[in-house]
Amino acid sequence: MIAKASPIDELIQKKNPFVGHIVVRSSQVWGKSFPDVPSINAHASDAVFDAVKKVSKGERENVGITITAEKGLGKSHIISRIRHRLQTEDNAFFIYMGKYDNLNQIKYEFLQTVAASLRAHGSKNVMQWQEIAAALINEVTGYDHTPQKYIDNIYPKNLNKHSNKFIDRLTQIVLQKKPDITNPYLVRGILWTLSSVHSNYANYWLSGLELTQQQAEVMGLPNSEKEDKEAEGLKTVRQILDIISDYKVPVICFDELDNTEVNEYGFLSAQVVASLVKDLYNSLKRGVFLLAMYPETWKGQIKVLPQAEAVIDRLVSEQLDRQPLKLNNLNSDDIVAIVSQWLKVFYKENQVTPPHPVYPFNETKLRQFGKSKPTVRSILKWCAENFGNSPTEWNPVEEYYQNELANVESSIDELMEDEEVISKALRFAFSSLVGEKLEEVKIEAIQDIEAKSPDKGYLDFKIVGNDSKVKIGVDVIQQSTGTYVGAALKRLIEYEKFDITRGCLVRSKKISSVAALANKRLKTLLHEQGGEWVKLQSQDIKPLLAIWFVYSCESYELTKEQIFDFIKQEQIAINNPLVREILSEPSGEQPEDLTDDDLPISIPQSVDSSADDIDLILSLSN
Fold first, then answer.
1. What is the Cα–Cα distance from 620 to 622, expressed in whole angstroms?
2. Sign of CA dihedral 118, 122, 124, 126
3. Which strands sit side by side in the sheet containing 437-438, from one edge to the other?
4. What whole-number distance in Å separates Cα of residue 422 and Cα of residue 410?
5. Which helix (H) or strand (E) holds 158?
């Protein structure tokens, strides 16, 4: 008789807690974190917590901390630990930047990062933006209401009764009592985040993105011109950070700096960010800055910057030796502690009790690994490959892809607004299809579209096929304003200028009927030039985004060939409806069931301004 496997052994055969979780991604920084052992490299995280205390007490204005460690040693684990510790406390706002898509517009991109970070929940279980808005109102009115009370009670009641005059009056009160704030629209945008109907639009605007004309008019928030965005980015970020620093310490983390991307002046990501931090350090009221990078990045990129001394003084402001904090490799006790903690969480979630803390591993064998001083990543990888009674075969691309797909699912609303990442995901998908023939197009190359300065930033890439007889110019346009859409469409219909034979607009939203020039150019594209409007749908772009994120994460240590093989094996690109529709013969018609970007309801513009109503609005300041 074959002995029946115990519940714990059955569990081990079905689930592997280490697979797909070897690398910390931004979702773990913000959401559910990896099991952590706080004692490991505590000197690094404690330095940040100590800096927050010093800044909170006024002992320091700004503190710069840089962590260096080899690949896989746990830099992002430390940042995740810091985020989750700060979330349980009430003395800091957390901002995290881990991707750098456009180094030529780093200030504008940082503005978007700050806005996205402040959308995350803080210590009060509401968006950090909403904590800031409530703190602003409470300070100038003398109240002590929670953000939730404003969201659930005060805002609905007053907006229904007083319309946007309620926001007008609140903004006026804030500006009167805080004269150091010079941007009234920024205050207005922050205050709108407490309205459940308008918070998404307020977040969108605070990110530096443009609202539709109706949204802008209803909320009283002006749109900036495209050319002004980079110039205004740092100015706006400074104002935001100065406002929030009145209430809590901004902790600003820069991760994933060790890539080879360069800006138009030849500076690498770490160098561009270091210069940005220097500017912020010099100009902010208060804050804590944390950078994480490889030792070779510090030595080969930071220390050779122009004015390197001034930059270094700010990046390691608390270190007498002017050197970064170094993370330590794991010793035997660390290894046992990490594996025990991961398994403790795993077994608790599955309601089983193991025979010993590191089961099914052997503690003596784990301790032997300590002699070689391994990295966190190498230990977790070994555990993933050896969990169970015998070594298991696992496909790292598959595991990372499923992990990224889950991350995409949880953030798809934000990703659907990110034109740049959608464009990169599409381009990568088409790159994997070079040499294939589908929809009567044999794909030969995916190319940049050459453009002079006034035309740069509009068209995304070109698909070349059928002996160069087919050249499809692709442009992802998710922005709302008719001005920008019209400007992009102007380029998309200039076939000869940009050496394309067909223009393809990829978009999920309607184009406003009042955007006359944009609609005129759209008609030219669809009806006169044989172009196409392909509807962007979340279910189609999700797998392409997920596999792009796998490819763009250097920490996964996968080759392009491995990923392309997986794309081909799973038919992620060749059977994708969005990919096929871009290549197919154009229909000449607008897609059906496009989303409407305008507010679902507008606030009445005509309201009763009786003395009682005005008194109610004024009562907030009493």
1. 6
2. positive
3. 437-438, 441-447, 461-465, 470-476, 502-507, 532-535
4. 16
5. helix 155-162
* Secondary structure (3-state) at 287: strand
How far is residue 188's CA from residue 211's CA, in Å, rounded to a whole number?
A: 14
Strands 461-465 and 470-476: antiparallel
Query: What is the predicted pLDDT for the residue at 102?
Result: 86
Write down the residue that tokens 């005060």 correspond to.
154
Phi/psi at 254 (nearest 5 deg)? -120, 120
Band the pLDDT of 226: cuts 50, 70, 90. low
For residues 547 and 572, the answer to whether their CB atoms sit within 8 Å is yes
Residue 591: which of 527, 483, 509 has the closest Cα? 509
> Strand runs (DSSP E) across 209-274, as ranges?
249-254
pLDDT tens for 526-555 read: 999 999 999 999 999 999 999 999 998 877
| 206 within 8 A of 244, measured Cβ to Cβ | no
The secondary element (H helix, E strand) that includes residue 94 is strand 92-97
295 conformational bin, left if phi > 0, alpha if psi -120 to 50, beta if neither: alpha
Is the pLDDT higher at 279 or at 393?
279
Determine the Cα–Cα distance for residues 215 and 189; give it in Å rounded to an integer: 12
In this predicted structure, what is the pLDDT of residue 615?
Answer: 40
pLDDT digit string, tens, across residues 461-506: 999 999 999 999 999 999 877 788 999 999 999 999 999 999 999 9
pLDDT band at 35 (very low <50, low <70, confident <90, very high): confident
3-state secondary structure 329-369: CCCHHHHHHHHHHHHHHHHHHCCCCCCCCCCCCCHHHHHHH
Phi then psi for residue 405, to 5 deg, are -60, -40
What distance in Å separates the CA atoms of residue 544 and residue 582, rounded to the nearest whole number? 14
Q: What phi and psi, each to the nearest 5 degrees, are found at residue 359?
A: -60, 135
Paired tokens of 434 = 């070079």
Distances (CA, A) of 186 to 23, 138, 222, 236, 368: 37, 17, 10, 8, 57
Cα within 13 Å of Cα(36), Cβ side: 23
Number of Cβ within a 10 Å radius of residue 587: 12
| Cβ-contact 47, 65 below 8 angstroms | yes
Question: Quick one: tokens of 429?
Answer: 């998908």
57-62: average pLDDT: 94
Residue 266 predicted with pLDDT over 80 = yes
The pLDDT value recorded for residue 121 is: 85
Is the pLDDT reported for residue 241 higher than 50? yes
Six-digit token pair at 408?
């995409």
Strand order in the sheet with 249-254: 92-97, 249-254, 287-293, 62-68, 325-326
Question: pLDDT averaged over the chain?
Answer: 88
Return the structure tokens found at 612: 């009682």
Structure tokens at 561: 């060939």
| Peptide bond just before 355 cis, omega within 30 deg | no
CB half-sphere exposure, 335, CA atoms < 13 A: 26
